[in-house]
């Protein structure tokens, strides 16, 4: 049950040693003044020691952080990694192994329950989509088709919330024949979707002419048979505006739609593919609020919702936790919730990306140590035309900002690029020693960062279960029984880190 799972996760997140991983940033750990908390003593000393020879003899596992990650993945290691003997894990402190085991057990499974056999192909609309976006659009279309097919209620009207370039909207119209309202807050996105629509129409017309109506032996598009419609609208989306715009659209649809009128309110499906920040909560509030209304004169009713959230760092403070107010999620919690350590080494190329990402975190932290110890800003001499002494100005140190990957080729090159961007000269022995490969501090920073990333999926699990439980509670007492579940729609390996959808569907007795 979600409530029981939330209790266990909440208890874990409130542990003093666990809270510290979210309160402390790697940049703080690197500072000369940092004193490790007593709760970390069991791994701090271990992390600063060289890797045991029995572990380092393995050509893949050469650092403490890799050893920890391999322990985390020991039940399902990537096929390309030569898995070492179990004995190497005995080098890891038992308290650290227990922490990682608990983290794994509290994280909800993320394997997709779907496969591509359920995906509905976007035969003529994949232009412009990245492989990740195409994967998500096809999977979500297939899931929605199956959801409708297995339900007694057969909604033919869909509101795509936060539609962006409307890839999903067009696929729902073209492949399933739905009447779709595509909503987005950005005029740029809406105009881009409309331009893409016109481009697709022209290319489809040319293909039809070249292939004598049928294309690759397939029937014409749903739009060619006038089975579906698509309208675009740009609005600021919240719970109230979502209900208002849907009501306005449905009032027009009643007049314009060629569908046979139903008895009672027209069933509506709300969908959102990556509802950023608090948009997920706005949709769920609108969904619950509409179902709780007892006004029989309403001409539409939401009978289902398929919502995939994202961008937890953009959540409004009041939306971070809905049911367990004894848990506080900080910006650090929300940033780490997006981590996917399960996917760090799905291929050799992906592992190299992970190593680079680790280097960026650690070297930036080491740079903070250098800046705290030896920094000489570039000085400038200011002299006025009148008599008087010249003054020396010491400019503020600029932010480092984003560096390209090439800046992290080696420590010396990184320091050089940092000096150039920040307008400083980094001098002294501290600068050269900070980047010494395999140093105790570097290893401790790596271990610390890996542990924070392993804890991140627990935070996302808490957020998802918290939303599911909240919606179930909100819908209690409404006239229509509604099933609320979490569904793993996409493959994280395909790049879809946020792969869990909140699916609500009205149950018909």
From TrEMBL:
Residues 132-316 form the Methyltransferase domain. SUPFAM superfamilies: S-adenosyl-L-methionine-dependent methyltransferases. It comes from the Eukaryota. This is Methyltransferase domain-containing protein. It comes from Cerrena zonata.
């Amino acid at each position: 049950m979600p409530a029981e799972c939330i209790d266990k996760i909440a208890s874990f997140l409130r542990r003093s040693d666990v809270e510290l991983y979210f309160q402390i940033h790697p940049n703080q750990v690197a500072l000369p003044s940092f004193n490790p908390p007593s709760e970390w003593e069991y791994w701090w000393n271990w992390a600063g020691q060289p890797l045991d020879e029995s572990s380092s003899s393995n050509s893949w596992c050469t650092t403490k952080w890799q050893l920890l990650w391999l322990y985390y993945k020991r039940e399902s290691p990537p096929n390309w990694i030569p898995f070492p003997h179990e004995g190497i894990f005995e080098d890891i402190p038992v308290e650290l192994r227990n922490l990682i085991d608990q983290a794994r057990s509290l994280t909800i499974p993320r394997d997709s329950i779907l496969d591509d056999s359920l995906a509905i192909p976007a035969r003529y609309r994949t232009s412009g989509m990245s492989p990740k976006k195409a994967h998500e659009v096809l999977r979500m279309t297939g899931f929605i088709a199956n959801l409708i097919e297995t339900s007694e209620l057969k909604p033919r009207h869909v509101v795509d919330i936060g539609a962006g370039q409307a890839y999903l909207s067009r696929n729902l119209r073209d492949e399933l024949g739905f009447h779709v309202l595509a909503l987005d807050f950005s005029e740029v996105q809406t105009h881009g979707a409309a331009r893409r629509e016109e481009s697709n129409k022209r290319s489809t017309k040319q293909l039809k002419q070249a292939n004598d109506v049928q294309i690759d032996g397939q029937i014409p598009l749903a739009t060619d048979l006038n089975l579906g419609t698509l309208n675009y609208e740009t609005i600021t989306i919240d719970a109230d505006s979502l209900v208002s715009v849907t009501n306005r659209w449905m009032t027009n649809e009643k007049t314009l739609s060629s569908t046979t009128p139903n008895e009672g309110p027209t069933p509506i499906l709300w969908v959102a593919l990556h509802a950023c920040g608090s948009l997920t909560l706005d949709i769920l509030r609108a969904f619950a609020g509409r179902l709780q209304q007892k006004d029989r004169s309403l001409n539409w009713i939401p009978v289902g919702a398929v919502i995939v959230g994202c961008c937890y760092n953009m959540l409004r403070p009041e939306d971070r936790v809905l049911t367990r107010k004894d848990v506080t999620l900080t910006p650090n919690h929300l940033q780490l919730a997006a981590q996917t350590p399960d996917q760090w080494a799905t291929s050799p190329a992906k592992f190299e990306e992970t190593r680079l990402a680790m280097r960026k975190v650690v070297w930036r932290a080491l740079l903070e140590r250098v800046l705290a110890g030896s920094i000489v800003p570039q000085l400038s001499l200011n002299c006025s035309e009148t008599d008087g002494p010249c003054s020396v100005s010491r400019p503020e140190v600029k932010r480092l900002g984003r560096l390209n990957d090439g800046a992290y080729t080696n420590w010396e090159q990184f320091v050089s690029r940092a000096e150039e961007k920040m307008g400083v000269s980094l001098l002294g022995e501290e600068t050269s020693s900070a980047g010494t490969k395999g140093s105790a501090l570097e290893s401790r920073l790596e271990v610390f960062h890996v542990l924070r990333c392993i804890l991140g999926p627990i935070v996302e699990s808490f957020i998802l279960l918290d939303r599911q439980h909240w919606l179930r509670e909100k819908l209690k007492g409404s006239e229509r029984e509604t099933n609320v579940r979490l569904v793993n729609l996409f493959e994280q390996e395909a790049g879809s880190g946020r792969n869990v959808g909140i699916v609500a569907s009205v149950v018909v007795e």
